[in-house]
Structures are given as C-alpha cells and as structure tokens.
C-alpha cells in the first residue's frame, strides 16, 4: 500500500495585480511645476517622474492657457468642463487640469490638494480609501499593499504564509493542506499525519526526492518494509517467506507451527 502526501507538489503563486505608489498634489503649479511632486512605481522601486513627464504637463498647461481670452485663465477642468480662473483655483494632476474643489477622492469626496493620492482606472483616491479597497491577508487581516500571494484560493502577505506547525515561511516552497485546509510544510505534514510503524513507532515516510513510499498493512497495523518481520525469529517477510498470523501475532510459517503446537497441541 502506498502512502502519498496530498497536494505535496503545490506551490504558492503571486498575483500580478498592480500596486500603486502615491502622487502628491500641492499648490497650483506654474509653468516651472516647482510645487508639485509626483512619483511612479518602476520595477518595484519608487522613482521620481522623468523630465519628459514634466515637459508634457508644461505643454498641457500652456496649451490650455492659450485657449481663452480670460487673462487669469488657468485651464479647463477635466471634471466639470468649466474654465479654471486663477492659478490658485486650479491644479494639474494625472496629466489633467482640475478645479481645486473638483479634484476629490472618488470614494469619500475629500479634497486631494496637498495630500497623497492614488490613481486607479484614471480615478483619484485618497490614501485611506485606497488602502481600504485592497484585499486583506487571511492570516493577519491587514491590507496587502505589496505582493499578493495566493494559495488555496486565499490572499496572503508573503511573510504570513507559513506552516501552521513549525511557522517556517512557505514563500516559493511546496506545501500541503490537511482536511481542515490548514497549511503545512511537507515535513510537518508527514510527521503529523503519516501512518506510524507498529514495530518502531516512527512515521512511514517517502525518502527524499520521492512523493510516495510503501507501507505494509497486516492485522490493521502499518509496518515499514524493514520492520515487517516474524515476531519470534525476526526473519523478514518476503514474497517467498510469507506471513502466517495467528492470535494477533505476525509469524513465519515455522514459528506459526511452533506456536500452534504450544498453544493448541496441534502437530
């Protein structure tokens, strides 16, 4: 009979969903854009936007300012489509112009000038609403702001995905689950659930590099191959030297006959 580790070849996978870094909207920018700092995420690192981004915003501002006869014209608001008069009333964010009063969090409506904000599907969110929109780790219940590790259909922080027994990190490591869907490393799963040998009382485990091992079952007991021997003379049972159990004892044919004569007077 083979003993197999259930799901032993599974490894956790990472969700490639985009994680955002915040932008900051300060006072209304002039053509120099000296009062506005934006950040973007590149290869997992937060970096300042390059010169081409700043030049693009400058051209956008200058084009909008030239489209009206109003001397204090700042631009057209991307939200309400009305003119923005006076640079103190306008801001540039997400490559667009807005009234200060129009550039608000999509969820809670708070004004975002001077605050960190996140852009999702070209909509701005304050930091609090963005964090609340994230999936939460099933272990610690905190929002996952970095990589999402998915295993058994659930989201985890990479550092929270650990063996329930030894607490070893299972990030990128094969794991298995029990009937209660609790996560175990392979070693702990075997130690906890593998059948135990009736003779030596050690777990019957696959050797390194294999997923299965052979266990022998006799009289509803489990045995290692090497431990499956005659209780009396200790000869190892083989296909040629079979087991002849009697009165809850596993015996070879020779010892079976001796036991029978002793206990029952059989010849």
TrEMBL record:
Superkingdom of source: Eukaryota
CDD domains: LIM1_TRIP6
LIM zinc-binding domain: residues covered: 75-136, 195-262
Keywords: LIM domain, Metal-binding, Repeat, Zinc
Gene3D superfamilies, per database record: Cysteine Rich Protein
A Gene Ontology BP annotation from the UniProt entry: cell-cell adhesion
Record region (Disordered): 1-42
GO cellular component: focal adhesion; stress fiber
Record-level Gene Ontology MF annotations: metal ion binding
Stored InterPro entries: Znf_LIM
Biased composition (Polar residues): 1-11, 28-42
PANTHER family xrefs: ZYX102 PROTEIN
Stated name of the protein: LIM zinc-binding domain-containing protein
Protein species of origin: Rotaria sordida
């Amino acid at each position: 009979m083979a003993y197999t580790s259930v799901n032993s070849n599974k490894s956790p996978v990472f969700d490639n969903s985009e994680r955002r870094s915040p932008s900051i909207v300060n006072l209304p920018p002039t053509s120099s854009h000296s009062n506005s700092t934006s950040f973007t995420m590149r290869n997992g690192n937060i970096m300042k936007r390059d010169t081409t981004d700043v030049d693009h915003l400058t051209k956008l501002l200058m084009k909008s300012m030239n489209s009206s006869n109003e001397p204090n014209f700042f631009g057209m608001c991307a939200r309400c489509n009305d003119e923005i008069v006076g640079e103190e009333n306008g801001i540039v964010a997400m490559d667009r112009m807005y009234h200060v009063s129009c550039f608000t969090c999509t969820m809670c409506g708070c004004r975002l000038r001077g605050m960190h904000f996140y852009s999702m599907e070209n909509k701005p969110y304050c930091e609090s609403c963005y964090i609340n929109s994230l999936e939460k780790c099933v272990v610690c219940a905190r929002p996952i702001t970095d990589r999402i590790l998915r295993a058994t259909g659930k989201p985890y922080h990479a550092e929270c995905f650990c063996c329930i027994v030894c607490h070893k990190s299972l990030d990128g490591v094969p794991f298995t689950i029990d009937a209660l869907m609790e996560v175990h490393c392979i070693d702990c799963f075997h130690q906890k659930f593998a059948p135990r040998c009736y003779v030596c009382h050690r777990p019957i485990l696959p050797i390194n590099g294999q997923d299965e091992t052979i266990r022998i079952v006799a009289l509803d007991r489990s045995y290692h191959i090497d431990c499956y021997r005659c209780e009396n003379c200790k000869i190892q049972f083989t296909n040629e030297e079979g087991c002849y159990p009697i009165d809850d004892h596993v015996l070879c044919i020779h010892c079976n006959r001796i036991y029978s004569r002793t206990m029952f007077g059989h010849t």
